[in-house]
Specification:
The structure holds 2 protein chains of 2 kinds.
Chain A: H1 2-28, H2 33-43, H3 50-59, H4 68-80, H5 95-130, H6 139-147, H7 151-165, H8 189-226, H9 229-236, H10 241-259, H11 261-279, H12 284-293, H13 297-325, H14 327-332
Helix pairs in contact in A: 1-13, 2-3, 5-8, 5-13, 6-8, 7-8, 7-11, 8-10, 8-11, 9-10, 11-12, 11-13, 12-13
Chain B: H1 2-6, H2 13-17, H3 41-60, H4 64-70, H5 74-88, H6 94-116, H7 147-183, H8 185-200, H9 203-213, H10 221-230, H11 234-248, H12 251-258, H13 263-299, H14 310-319, H15 328-356, H16 365-370, H17 375-383
Helix pairs in contact in B: 3-5, 6-7, 6-15, 7-8, 7-10, 7-11, 7-13, 7-14, 7-15, 8-11, 10-13, 11-13, 12-13, 13-14, 13-15, 14-15
The chains are: A mainly alpha, B mainly alpha.
Chain lengths: 333, 387
């Protein structure tokens, strides 16, 4: 119980840190969002009055108004009400509405692709570690190559090959938006079919790029575990190789992969953000890119918060799972 | 420990002996650190000591087999020492060779390339020509700029960012991972909590937010590097903390503390050398992370102002719809180069891992058989298959 309490407490601290960072960054950075927006408006030929300036300031959550503490308190109260402000580029749509529409896309895509990459990568890692020094070791250089491939570049290559040269997969979007009869997002067969079809290339990008990391980590842990004494004992007892491999070696070797989940997930999320822009995939990453290119500060900050919360939640889940399958983590707490 | 690293460079035969038996003249407080009983110091010694040791041994014994017959004593001992050092190093270093060669080629291209090519921003009338046509080795982009020239400057920019971020992140991780752990108590708890919190907050979104709040004209190379470093040190710090915790409990560290050595001295002289192999691996990893992170940032249009990196080339290629125009030569080479640099660094990292963790080395049955054999038996084994 103590273990679970500590974990939840830690993630609460992390959540608070993310919220505070999100609050502090705009106030600490040299750039002034209000001036940037005013400059853009002026360049577009609009008349700028002090009232315009004030309106934008209020719209951006009152940066520079009142004391820091009252601003901070207001910020937390707004967040507690799920109020992330109003998007500038899509005025007057609320940021929470935009992200509410985008989040399911990213969570489904990244979630499924990560689970798939994890299972495949760990499986290959077990194989490569078990048969170390054999032809399977040739997987290592290949894996290191894919590990270092930028997600967005792989996305470009996949698009070039499978969408432009051979027109197998669609070029962009999360589902067919120009189809007739019109496909309405929701739980209906035409939509699900279209979404899965459009999700193939983005998912392939994530799996191909992240599988190598899981595989290399697992392979190394497997090799380390195989030289432990309990493996020797198991072999000396005459246990079947399959049993030694799975129950004695793989089960222990997979634990570091799980406890290092935070690092790996960070990479996958980072890669997916940039990748989504290549596919114009209607997820959170694409929104972040749109926010960045339109100087839509409320949307950008909201996106950062939502991504942080999602990553924290995923990590909490894995940590709790790890506590369940590895009693040692609970004992150490 | 430090005397071991220095003495082999001193000269030929007799000086090399210092490595086999501890030199009586060495500082008494340093000898425990070189104790072979501690598992970590020896691998740490290996990468630095081998190149230094090889030159003095070579002139003394060109064909080792003859020397063994002619002379006894010093030469034989040197030979044995070399063999044990060779055992410390990864036994099959094909990965290392490939990694170093690849990296060397790319670094050479980054250093020499910009001197050999024309201005990467010079526009011409050869717009979007394919590779090999009208003197453009890798073709041109939409503005008629030579892509080979752009690539040369881009690799240089990416590598500079990578190395800068790698160094900064390593220093940060050492600060948070080692210092707090050694001090213990509240400082340790605070540092560990801070590290773990930074670790779980996703790095790239944070980097994007920070970078976007800096006005484009003030977004310099150093600033981007600093932002990337701030978001990438935590994982290494956590690993360093675990290693430091185990090193801190060793007897020789306790001895140094009891002997009244200052905190910074214990940290720098007794503890840090044990962490060098781990940190080397982390530096390599940090460089990969930085190159990838910078490419991602630049691709979103948030790169350093006025800089030329592989990421910016990809950004312009994507913005100018190179994909829909089928201009693969515009965006394939930059990404390929990033992946190749990353692959080379990973392969080097693999070899470093094998030095730190002997269990990762080739321990197939065939390799294990060779461990107990003498050089003559090994030579026989190589000539004919004795298996």
């Amino acid at each position: 119980m103590r273990f679970y309490f500590q974990k939840v407490l830690f993630y609460l601290v992390a959540l608070w840190a993310a919220l505070t960072l999100n609050f502090a960054i705009p106030r600490l950075m040299p750039g002034d969002p209000v001036s940037i927006i005013v400059m853009k408006m002026a360049a577009a030929g609009q008349v700028i009055t002090p009232e315009t300036r004030h309106a934008i300031t209020v719209q951006l959550g009152g940066v520079g108004e009142g004391g820091w503490w009252s601003q901070y308190w207001q910020y937390l109260v707004n967040l507690a009400h799920g109020d992330l402000g109003v998007s500038i580029a899509n005025y007057p749509v609320k940021v929470s509405t935009i992200l509410g529409n985008a989040l399911p896309w990213t969570v489904t895509l990244v979630g499924l692709a990560t689970v798939l990459a994890f299972v495949l990568g760990v499986g290959l890692g077990i194989l490569a570690g078990w048969r170390r020094g054999s032809v399977w070791d040739n997987l290592i250089p290949v894996a290191t190559f894919f590990q270092a491939v930028p997600y967005f570049w792989l996305a470009l290559i996949l698009l070039l090959l499978l969408s432009r040269t051979w027109q197998v997969f669609p070029f962009a979007q999360g589902y067919d938006t120009v189809a007739w009869p019109i496909i309405t997002p929701g739980l209906n067969w035409p939509f699900v079919k279209s979404a899965v079809y459009h999700g193939c290339l983005p998912a392939a990008t994530i799996v191909l790029s992240s599988i190598a990391g899981w595989m290399l980590g697992m392979r190394n842990m497997m090799v380390s575990t195989l030289s432990e004494d309990h493996i020797l004992t198991a072999e000396a007892k005459g246990l079947k190789p399959g049993r030694v491999r799975w129950t004695y070696a793989a089960r222990n070797a997979v634990l570091p992969s799980l406890s290092g989940f935070a690092i790996s997930l960070g990479f996958v999320v980072a890669g997916s953000i940039v990748m989504e822009t290549v596919f114009s995939y209607p997820g959170v990453g694409f929104q972040l890119w749109k926010a960045v290119s339109n100087n839509d500060y409320p949307l950008m900050q909201g996106t950062f918060l939502v991504i942080s919360i999602a990553v924290l939640a995923a990590n909490l889940l894995v940590d709790l799972l790890l506590g369940l399958i590895d009693p040692r983590t609970r004992a150490r707490a | 420990m430090s005397d071991h690293l220095v003495s082999p460079t001193g000269g030929a035969g007799p000086a090399a002996d210092a490595t086999t038996a501890p030199d009586p003249a060495t500082d008494a407080t340093l000898t425990p650190a070189a104790d072979p009983a501690a598992p970590l110091p020896d691998p740490a010694l290996a990468p630095a000591a081998t190149p230094a040791l090889a030159p003095p041994a070579d002139p003394a014994a060109p064909p080792p087999a003859d020397e063994l017959v002619d002379e006894t004593g010093a030469v034989e001992r040197v030979f044995q020492r070399r063999r044990s050092l060779a055992q410390l190093l990864p036994s099959r270093s094909a990965k290392l060779v490939v990694g170093v060669t690849l990296l060397g080629a790319v670094v050479l291209f980054a250093v020499l390339g910009p001197w050999l090519v024309d201005d990467p921003r010079a526009i011409s009338t050869d717009m979007l020509v394919a590779p090999g046509t009208s003197g453009h080795l890798l073709g041109t982009n939409q503005a008629g700029q030579d892509l080979f020239a752009q690539l040369a400057y881009g690799v240089r920019g990416s590598l500079i960012i990578g190395v800068a971020v790698g160094l900064m992140a390593t220093v940060l991780s050492a600060l948070f991972g080692v210092l707090g752990t050694y001090l213990g108590g509240v400082a340790d708890d605070g540092f560990a909590l801070f590290t773990n919190v930074v670790l779980v907050i996703p790095g790239l979104p944070l980097t994007i937010v920070i970078a976007n709040y800096v006005p484009a004209d003030r977004r310099g190379l150093l600033l981007i590097a600093a932002v990337l470093a701030i978001t990438s040190w935590a994982a290494s710090a956590r690993v360093l903390r675990a290693v430091t915790l185990s090193v801190r409990q060793r007897d020789y560290v306790a001895a140094a503390r009891v002997a009244g050595e200052k905190t910074w001295r214990v940290l720098v002289v007794e503890i840090l050398p044990n962490l060098i192999p781990v940190m080397a691996g982390q530096l390599v990893f940090a460089i990969i992370f930085a190159i990838l992170g910078e490419a991602g940032l630049s691709f979103l249009g948030l790169g350093a102002n006025g800089s030329f990196t592989l990421g910016t080339i990809l950004y312009f290629a994507w913005q100018s719809l190179a994909l829909t125009q089928g201009a693969w030569w515009w965006f394939v080479p930059p990404g390929l180069l990033i992946a190749l640099v990353g692959m080379a660094l990973s392969l080097i990292n693999f070899s470093i891992d094998e030095i730190i963790n002997p269990k990762l080395r080739q321990s197939t049955r065939a390799a294990r058989k060779q461990w107990g054999l003498t050089p003559e038996q090994l030579a026989l084994l190589k000539e004919g298959d004795v298996r």
